[in-house]
Amino acid sequence: MIKIKARAGGRAEILIHEAIGENWYGDGLTSKRFVQDIQALGDVSEILVRINSPGGAVFDGVAIYNALKAHGARIDVRVEGLAASIASVIAMAGDTIRMGPGSTLMIHNPATVVFGEAEDMRAAAAMLDKVRDAMLEIYVNRTGMDEDELKALLDAETWMTSAEAIAYGFADEADDEDETDEAEARAKAAAAERWSGLVASFRQTTPKSKFPLQVAAAAFQSARADAPSEVQTMDKTEKGASANTPDVEAIARKAAEAALATEDARRQAVRDVFAGRFAQDHSALLASCLDDRQCSAEQASKKLLAKLAEANKDAASIAGNGAIQPGTDESDKRVEAATDWLLARAGEKAGEKRKVDGSNPYKGFSLTDMAEDSARRAGVNVRGLTRSQIVAAAFGHTTSDFPNLLENTLNKLLLVAYTGAPTTWRRIARTGDLADFRAHPRYRIGTFSDLATVNESGRYEQGTVADAQRESITAVRKGRMLVVTREMIVNDDLQAFSDIARNLGSVAARTIDKDLYALFALNSGNGPTMGDGQPLFHSTHFNIDSTGAVPSVTRIDAMRVLMARQQDPSGNDFLDIRPAIALSGMELGSALRVLNESQFDPDATNRLQRPNVVRGLVSDVVDTPRLTGTAYYLLASPTEEPVFEVGFVGGVQEPTVEQMEEFDSDSLKWKVVLEYGVAAIGWRGIVRNAGA
Question: What pLDDT score does 535 carry?
C-alpha cells in the first residue's frame, strides 16, 4: 500500500509498503501515481518516507527517487522492514536515512527475462549494464564508496542489517523506538549475531534455492511464539541469570526447517503446473512463480493461462516485473496455427475466407485430433483412452492449451460477427466512455451575456452565465453464456460452435441498436424524458415541425430552419446547427434519398424550372426497420451536436469473453459480456415531423 498524508506544521508522511511498478494484477506503486500524489501535498517543508518494499520495476523506482530529490522539502527516510532492490534506490533520496529495529536493506544487479535470438540477448545484456551503471551512480553519490567495491556488493546480492547499512554508508543511524538499557542492547546484539549464523547455515544447506531473510525471520518469530518462556529464559541468561537455558537455536531451526519444507512443497506444486513443454516454453514465468513465495500452485496456473491468452507480448520491464519478447513463443504459434485452421473450417478469418496452406501443422485436424495433441503436449498419456476421455483430459488438465485455442477461435468469430452486423446506431449516436455503472452527467453549457456599452467614466456591468442543461447516461451489464460440451468436440460439431459464436456477436451488436431505437417509443412516441422534465420531442424544445406531411422540399427546409434557430441554454444566441442525417423507417428511406439527391424539386409542377433547395443537405440517409410509422427526422452530426450517446464502460466497445471450466460436466463455458448504456443527451440537434 502507499499512503500519503499531510501533517501539521508543513510536514507530510509517505508510506510505501508495496512492490514498485505494476504487477500481474494491476497492483503496485507506479511512478505516475506517486508523482500525482506527492504533487497534491502542496507546500510542505518536511517529508517522512517510511519504506517496507521488496522492490520491483527499475524505471518506476528511479522516477520515484528523482521525484523525491526534486521536491523542495527535506526528505527523511525510515526503513521499517525491508528496502530491497529498487526500493533501496528510493531510500537513497533521503537527506537522512534511518533503519528501524530489525530492518534490512538489500542491493543487487537489475534483471530481466528475454525471449529471442543471440542478438536479443546481447542487446538485453548491454541494456542491463547501463541500468546497473545508473543505479551505481546513485549508490556512489550516497555512500562515497568505490565503484568497484559497490559492483562486488551488487554481484553478490548483498543483504544488510542496520549496522551493516550504516557501516557502508547506505544509512545514517539505527532508529530504536524503544529505550533499552545497555545490557538489553547487548542481549539483542548477541541474539542477532547468533541468528545471522543460523541463517548462514540454512543457506549452505539449500544451495540451489535462495533463502530470503524474511523466511528466516518468520521462522524465528514462529519459534518465539511457540516457546515464549524459553525465549524469556534466554533473555535472562544474556543478563547473567540462570544458565539453564533451552537450545533456542534448535527451536528456531526446527521452525525454519518446517518453513523450508513448506516452501519446497510449494515449489514442487508450481513445477507440476508447468509440467511437460511449458517448463521450457515459459521458463521465465516458471522462475518468477518459483521465486515468489506468495505464489501458490493455483495462482501459478492462473498466471500461465493468462500468459497463453495474451494478445500482445511486447511489454517489458526490469527487475523481474516483465519480459522482453521479440517474437512469439512456440506454444502461442501452435495456438495461432490451430485457430487459423478452425477459422478456415468455419469459413472465415477477420471477415474474409481463410486460406490455409500445407505449412499449417493442423490442416485436416478434427476437434478431437486437436484435443489429443493438446493433451499429449501437456504430458498426458493418452494411450488406451477413448475419444471422450481424451477430450475430458484436454479440458481438465491445467497446462492444456485446448481451452485456449477454442477461446481464441470463439473470440475472433464473435468479433467478426459483431463488427459486421447490420446496425445503424454508430451513424446517429455519439460513442462515449463511462468509468463505471453510476449515472454520468452530460452538460450543455450556456454562453456569457453579450458585451454592454460602457460610457465615458461609466461602470462595467456584470454578466451572467445561465445554468447548464444537464442530462445523464448510465451503463448496465448485458451478456449470455455459451457452453461447449464434450459431445460437441467428439462429434467434431464445429458448425454448431461457430454458429453460436457468430450469433452471439450479432446479438451483441443488435442489442445496442434495439436499445437506442427503443428510446423513440417512450412517452407515447415523444422520446425519453429529459433533464427539464419534458420528453425529447416537445414544443418547449422547438424541435417539432408541426405541419405533419410526407417528406418534401418544403417540409425538409422548414425542419432545417427550426434546427438553425435553436439557442444555447442561456438564450443569448442562435446555434445555427445544420442537419447532417435524415432518419426514418424503411418505408420513407427512398423518398428521403430522392429529395436529398434530386437537382430539381420532385414535387414541382415544372420541375425543370424549380431547383431543389435542400439538395445535398444531409450527408447520410438512415432508414431502419426498427422505426415504424410515418415520422421522419433530421439530425445534426453526432460529433457536433449529439442527441444520443452510447457509452461503454472503460471504453471497451467490443464484447469480452470470460472462460470457466466445468469439471463436473466436462464442458467449457464462455460468458460473453458487453457493458454499455444508451441515452438522449440533448434535443437541439434533432427535429421531428410526424408525417402523414
Answer: 96
Helices of type H across 364-401: 367-377, 387-396
Region for 157 from its dihedrals, namely left if φ exceeds 0, alpha if ψ lies in -120 to 50, beta otherwise:
left
Q: pTM for the full model?
A: 0.49
- Is residue 619 annotated as part of the catalytic site, yes or no? no
Residue 480 dihedral angles phi and psi, to the nearest 5°: -145, 165
**Residue in 85, 88, 637, 667 annotated catalytic:** 85
Catalytic site residue from 31, 53, 88, 108: 108
Question: Cα separations (Å) of 270 from 218, 287, 298, 479?
Answer: 22, 10, 8, 34
Distance, CA of 82 to CA of 251 (rounded, Å):
25
Which residues, 6 or more positions from 430, have their beta carbon under 8 angstroms from its beta carbon?
638, 639, 642, 644, 645, 646, 681
pLDDT in tens, 492-540: 777 777 777 888 888 889 999 999 999 999 999 999 999 999 999 999 9
- Please report where in the chains the cell 456569457 appears, as a residue: 448
Cα(169)–Cα(637) distance, rounded to whole angstroms?
A: 66
The predicted-structure confidence for 412-439, as pLDDT tens digits, reads as follows 887 888 888 889 999 999 999 998 889 9
Report the amino acid identity of residue 551. Answer: P
CA distance 473 to 220: 57
Instruction: Read off φ and ψ for residue 648, nearest 5 degrees.
Output: -110, 135
Dihedral of the alpha carbons of 68, 73, 74, 78, in degrees to the nearest 10: -50
Q: What is the DSSP letter of 99?
A: E
**Strand (E) positions, 417-528?**
430-434, 440-444, 469-473, 476-485
Q: What tens digit of pLDDT does each residue of 44-71 get?
A: 889 999 999 988 888 889 999 999 998 8
Rounded to whole angstroms, the Cα distance separating 308 from 290 reads 18
H and E: helices and strands count for the chain: 23, 20
C-alpha cell at 319: 527487475
- Residues 634/556, Cβ–Cβ less than 8 Å: yes
414 and 501 Cβ atoms separated by less than 8 Å: yes
Identity of the amino acid at 90: I
Q: Give the three-state DSSP class for 440.
A: strand
The closest alpha carbon to 362, from 384, 345, 380, belongs to 345
Would you give the end-to-end CA distance of the chain in angstroms? 66
Residue 58 near residue 110 (C-beta atoms within 8 A): yes
What own/partner pairs with CB < 8 Å and gap ≥ 24 does 227-236 have? 227/251, 234/191, 235/184, 235/187
Catalytic status, residue 108: yes
Backbone φ and ψ of 572, nearest 5°: -85, -25
- Which is nearest to 109 in space by CA: 91, 120, 93, 124? 124
Query: Which alpha helices (DSSP H) does 380-437 contain, by range?
Result: 387-396, 402-420, 425-428
Distance CA 522, CA 447 (A): 31
Handedness of CA 408, 410, 416, 419 (dihedral sign): negative
d(CA 583, CA 632): 6
Distances in Å between the alpha carbon of 392 and those of 10, 232, 388, 400?
65, 58, 6, 11
